[in-house]
Structures are given as structure tokens and as C-alpha cells.
Amino acid sequence: MLDATGRPRSLFLLGGTSDIALAVAERYAARTPGLRVVLAARPGERRDAAVSRLQGLGCEVHAVDLEARSVESHEQAVRAAAGHGDLDVSVVAYGVLGDNERAWTDVAAGTELAEVNFVGPLAAGILLGEQVRRQGHGVVVALSSVAAERPRRSNFVYGATKAGTDAFFTGLGEALREHGGHVLVVRPGFVRSKMTAGLDPAPLATDPGHVADAVLAAVDARREQVWVPGAMRGVMVVLRHLPRPVFRRLPI
Amino acid sequence: MRGTAPAVQRRTLTGWGRTAPSAADVASPRSPDEVASLVAAPRVGGDRPHRGVLARGLGRSYGDAAQNAGGLVLDMTGCDRILAVDVEERVVRVEAGVSIDALTRTLLPLGLWLPVVPGTRQVTVGGAIAADVHGKNHHVSGSFGAHVLALDLVAADGEVRTLTPDGPGAEAFWATVGGMGLTGVVVRATLSCIPAETAYAVVRTERARDLDHLLDLLAEDDPDPYSVAWFDALARGPRMGRAVLTRGRLAQVGDLPARLAKHPSSFGAASRGPAVPVLPHGLLNRAMGRAFNELWFRKAPARPTTDVQPLGAFFQPLDGVRDWNRVYGPRGFCQYQFVVPESETDAFRRAVALIAGSGHPSCLNVLKRMGESGPGLLSFPAPGWTLAVDLPVGPGLDRLLDGLDDLVLGAGGRVYLAKDSRLRPDAVEAMYPRLGQFRSARRVLDPDGLFVSDLARRVLL
């Protein structure tokens, strides 16, 4: 459990090599000396690097394998993570941006995006929900996107997958309330990270550190939704209500 | 013959500080027999594997001591019968879920009072034993456990054991007194009482201009058994630690003015004051805290006075304000209470300075001198200076309290587990030297670790 001042004893990162997940881990590691981190990701150099980075911060790190497109792999990862003790904060952080033009014209490319960004997180959410009900507590942080709020021509397949994930975790939060669970849906704008490397930053671009700061603050306040940067919330309120002919002309 | 076990209901629970909620399956047994059957066959909703059992009283522990995330929680307030009162011998036998409020209302008309009452009457006898609570007379009378003549404990096997402070069950008794509910469920207790002619106290009130003055006043030889100081936790510089000291004794009929002497044992109505609404976060800010502290200090007479007060007003002033814990906003608050040895006035002074200089507003700040420790293995009270502050949860509070932990540990003191919601395991290990003995006693009573709480999981008791 998180203590009264917001210190967890354990952290479970799904997509543990994601820049945002690691930034969250660094901040919690600073709060809790000896924080236990279970890092689920595909085995390889990137995971090894993440493990040693967190060990360097004094964390007790356990690496487990996770393949985003395999439901079975999710089951094994959650079981392995829970085997180390209660899961205080879990972060579902993996996802891919994909190539929108391929994704909406090629069935294989489109459904792959859906598997990684929606089916996988859905499986993770169901399994984590089961764990929360068993524990009687637990925070689940799901990385959504402002793209989930209104489809755009330039990334609507990604937006569609994130919209599904966003809706699922929003509802999961309601379902887990009576079980002591707290689900936070995070809607960042453009984040300068591995995922967006090579793309031109959109207005209000942010970085993984800011997203992580917003995540910790929202978990502390038991908020269920957070936009990063905060100003994005107001922007999206406006964008959501623009007539389509206007919206489609915007340079975004 | 055991009764049938009552139904369970999933509920989210917090302590009085309203921090760190967790969900548990709550059962409300109506009798010690039902408690025994629930312990012997703990059931939880659905097909979840169970995560232990814990008794809960009126939920006045500030932190997570009366929570059991994912497990079974026994709401003991249904086991609240007063079984027998022996006025001649001054002994009362009760079920553990009875509140101190109900108990004192029954005892006073019979000319009896409890030797130790905590700062709220809204606690159960079982909770008072589990936390080994203390009162304003700790330096004279010790803690609650010192006046428990016997208790009935439902242990992990579902059997009832009668434990007494001496004799064969003594180790289990002193593991249970102050044991935070981790040795089993206290279902009945036999308590000794003291005579009380009236429902009033004779109270002397005086101001202390700063911390040194206050410590001098508290160190004086004092004819009165009860003493406590409220102090200003925000005043800095020369006024740091300015305080209002109240000392008193139970009044006799001869002490009362004529209009009160007609009904000397009338305790007053059960109704309590208005509920406090939840304030938006941040409303209880430093400015408001400062105003409150100033007001509280000014409210006290500038010169020492003596007056007669109802026992409730003297012992439990906050019981008049329903749900006062909501004033701290949605994130709740931490109460931090520590004790350091009397020789460590320097550490004590530094702790007060750390709090006053921290920017965290605290309003309900209590300071007193404690007497000798009791035999309770995990009991908090120890001889020296104790201080309690209420601090709303906000950024930086973790670091302030970690800093205080270090100071307290360095001075050979400890922090009160019944109020804690954020201590770390290594600190608890260092603060409670008899923890090892407690763990062995617990293993004997509960080898499989059936009784558990969020507190126990957090600090690895």
C-alpha cells in the first residue's frame, strides 16, 4: 500500500523500458528507499539497462518477460510480479505509435496496433483488477493519450486504440473503487521520447519527466484523470467541440 | 456451542486521519461466540483467498492500524454489553466492543470512573487495550493496560483464552496489551475503576510563555494527577513553545458550586456538536493555522485560574465536535506523537523548532510528561516528554516526518504506532526494543499469522 504520505513499497512497470515508466520509477525510488520494482518488458539490452539504472537508485529490481501482443505473457508477468508481494502501484506504459497510413490501409498493420495498444492493456487491466480485488488496495496507472479524445486524420488508428484503452481503464476505476483500487488515466499530449523520436513536436509538447511528475501528483491526490501538460485539458475541451469542418483545417 | 457466522460486506476503511484507504470484508459479530466462529473459519466474499483477520473498534486509530486490506475485519462495536459492575470492589466486566463513552456514562452514576481515559471517549475497550492508550494522568497511573485485571482473547485456533497480568498467561497478556490486535481478538475484559464523587474536575489553567517555561512547569512537583499542555506549534523565536497548561483532579461534592452540587453525577447530554464539513484542500493553510493557534493561546486566562469543568470538557474537549477530522481536507492528515527521555530536552526543543519552522500548519498540539513504562511489549508510553501534532498531508510532509524520526531515534525515543501511518520498518525495529519478544509471543499464539493489519504489513511487525 501507499503510506499516508504517498510512498509505495512496490512498483510494477508493464513496458518497463518506456521513458515515462522509468521516470515514474525514478521519482518513487527517491521517495521510498529500497523500493521494490518489478520491471516487465521484452528481454534485451534495453531492459538490462533499465534494471541497472534502477538498481543504481537503490531499488530491489526483478525483471520479468512481457510480450505486448501475447495475452498469455501478460498472465505470466502479473503472476510473477504478484509473487514478490502486493502490487502497490502498477503502470501500464507500453504502446506504439505505428504508421497511420499503413495502419488504416493494411489489416495486419492496423490490428497489430490494436493488439499492442488496446488488447494487451485490456488484458493487463483485467489481471491487475483481479489482483487489486484480492489485495483490497492498489493503484493502476494507464497511459492513454489526448489522441484518444478526438480522432485526427493524421493518427486516428492510434487514437482509436487509445480511446479503447482510455474507456476501459476509466470504467475499471469505477469497478475497483469498492475494492480499494484507484485507477489513474493519463492523457499526455506530444511527449518527446523514444516513441516519438524523429517526429516534429506538436504544440504543448512535454517530456517524460513532466508526465511522471503529473502522475505522482495525481496519484497523491487520488485523481482519476490527468492531462499533461495541465493546459492540455483546456485545449482538448475546446478541440472536442469544434465543428468538424473547422477541426480538419487545423494544422495539428 | 458457536453461533452462526454473520454475513460479510466489502467496505473501504481508513483510520481517523483519513489517509491510505483499503478495502476489506467487514463482518459485524454480535457476540464473542460469533467472533470465535468467524476466527475459526474466516470467510471472505467470492472465491478470494483470505488475507487474515483483524478486529476493529470505533476507528479512532489515526493511521492504518485497524485496516486489513483484502482480508476480514471484525467490526466489534456490536459486542458492547456491560456484563457486570461490582461497585464495592470497583470492578467492571465488559465486552470489548463497548465504548469508553458508554462505559463511563454507566459508571459515573454509580460513583465510578476509569483510572485511564484517553483524549476521546469514542474508542472501544478492545481498542484501548490493543493500543494501550494513555491519558493525562500517565505519570501517576500508567497506561490503560495497567488497570486491566483480565481479558478474554480469541486466538487463531478460535478458542477463548483468559489472560491475566501475572501467572501462566502473562506473556500473552502483555503481548496483547499494546499489541495492536495482532495476537487475537479481545472479546471481554475486566477493568478496575476508581471512585468519582462527581462528574466534574477541578482544573487549574495557566499560560507558559515559551517552551522552557512550560517544561519547568511540567517538571514541578504537582499535587494534581492530571496534567496536559496545548502548545502553539507555529510560534517561532522567543515565543516558541508558548502553551496553555491545564492540571486537574476529580472534583468532590464539596468542590462544586451549589447549582451543580444538586446533580453532581450528571454527565451531560449525549448529543454532540455540529459536523465539520470537508474543507477544500489547502484551506487549512498556514495563515489559518496561525490564527487558530493565536486564538487558542489568547482564550486562556493570562493569570493562573482554577475552575470546575465537566469531566467530558476536561478530558475530551474534541468529543464535542463531530467529525473534526474532516477539517484537514480530502487528503487527510497524519498525527505524529513521539516520546523522548526527560534528559533529552535538547532533542525535544529541536523537534518543536523543526515543526514550527516547517511551514506545515498544526493546530492540535499536545505536550505532556509521561511516567514509567508498563510491561506491554509494544506499548508506546515511556518516561519523558511526549508531543503530538496533527499535520495535513501535503508535499514535503514525508521529509519533515522522516527528519523527526531521526531526531526521536537519536534521542532514544519512539513514535506511537496507534497514530502512525508512515513509519518505516527499520525505524520501528529501532524504536521498539521488545519487538523481538513480541514477535515470539505472537508466533506462539498465532503460528500462521492469521491476525494481520495494514500497519503490520507496512512496518513488518
Distance between the termini of chain B: 34 Å
Low-confidence spans of chain B: 270-274
First CA to last CA of chain A: what distance? 41 Å
SSE-based structural type of chain A: alpha/beta
Total count of strands of chain A = 7
What would you call the quaternary organization? heterodimer
Specify the helix fraction band of chain A.
Answer: 40-55%
| Number of DSSP helical runs of chain A | 9
Biggest sheet: strand arrangement of chain A: 3-2-1-4-5-6-7
Outline type of chain A: globular
Q: Share of helix among residues of chain B?
A: 25-40%
Largest interface: A-B, 24 and 33 residues
Number of helices of chain B: 14
Average pLDDT rating of chain A: 96
Instruction: Catalogue the unreliable spans of chain A.
Output: none
How would you characterize the largest beta sheet of chain A?
7 strands, parallel
The general outline of chain B is globular
Taking all Cα atoms into account, the compactness measure Rg of chain B is: 21 Å
Secondary-structure-derived class of chain B? alpha+beta
Number of strands of chain B: 19
What proportion of the residues of chain A form beta strands (DSSP E)? 15-25%
